[in-house]
């Protein structure tokens, strides 16, 4: 039920973005050129890798290898932290480029005020995603400690599978956000 509400929340957010993107295609393309494609791509690779480590950890628990599983859960959390670090660096670069609505926003030549709407969506959507990822990182660390102490085994691992679903959901949301934000107008 929780994941269903999250799907509805992020679905509505992404749908709203596309309504405006269709309404103002030229301005969204102009704004999209200022996104950091390389940093978004690095973050995509980080999250896809973290999904693999999460799934591998769950499989190791199923095979009664909790120590190795815990190690992979710690790696998953580290990858999550790496994502947040890259995103923080990207936000700083966006601030320097004057693309942060309400704080540091300056229209560039050829841009209309609707460009600020693109950036508002960008910061709201990626910020909420980063919040969800941060919550996931904390949960992964807690579950890694529990796994290391033998709380989960082949006989009982369903909480890890639920955590894996949450982690995969957050990663999937990122794939949709990446596709909506970063490659726009770069084809």
Task: Walk me through this protein's architecture.
This protein has 187 residues and is an all-alpha fold. The protein contains six helices and two strands. Strands 1-2 form a two-stranded antiparallel sheet. The termini are far apart. The model has no long low-confidence stretch (mean pLDDT 95).
Keywords:
6 helices, two-stranded antiparallel sheet, single chain, 78% helix, 187 residues, 2 strands, elongated, mainly alpha
User: Can you count the helices?
Assistant: 6
Tell me, briefly, the overall form: elongated
* Helix/strand class: mainly alpha
The radius of gyration is: 19 Å
Briefly, what is this?
78% of the residues lie in helices and 2% in strands. The chain has 187 residues and is mostly helical.
Topology diagram in text:
Layout: H1 2-23, H2 25-32, H3 37-62, H4 66-96, E1 99-100, E2 104-105, H5 115-148, H6 158-181
Antiparallel strand pairs: 1-2
Helix pairs in contact: 1-5, 1-6, 2-5, 3-4, 3-6, 4-5, 5-6
């Amino acid at each position: 039920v929780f994941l269903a509400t999250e799907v509805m929340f992020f679905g509505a957010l992404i749908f709203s973005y596309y309504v405006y993107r269709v309404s103002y295609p030229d301005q969204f393309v102009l704004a999209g050129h200022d996104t950091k494609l390389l940093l978004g791509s690095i973050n995509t690779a980080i999250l896809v890798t973290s999904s693999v480590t999460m799934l591998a950890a769950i499989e190791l628990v199923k095979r009664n290898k909790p120590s190795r599983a815990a190690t992979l859960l710690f790696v998953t959390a580290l990858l999550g932290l790496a994502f947040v670090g890259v995103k923080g660096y990207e936000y700083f670069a966006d601030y320097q480029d004057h693309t942060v609505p309400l704080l540091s926003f300056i229209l560039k030549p050829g841009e209309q005020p609707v460009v600020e709407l693109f950036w508002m969506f960008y910061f709201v959507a990626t910020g909420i995603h980063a919040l969800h990822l941060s919550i996931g990182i904390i949960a992964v660390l807690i579950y890694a400690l529990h796994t290391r102490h033998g709380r989960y085994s082949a006989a009982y691992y369903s909480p890890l599978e639920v955590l894996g679903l949450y982690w995969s959901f957050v990663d999937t949301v990122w794939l949709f956000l990446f596709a909506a934000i970063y490659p726009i107008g770069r084809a």
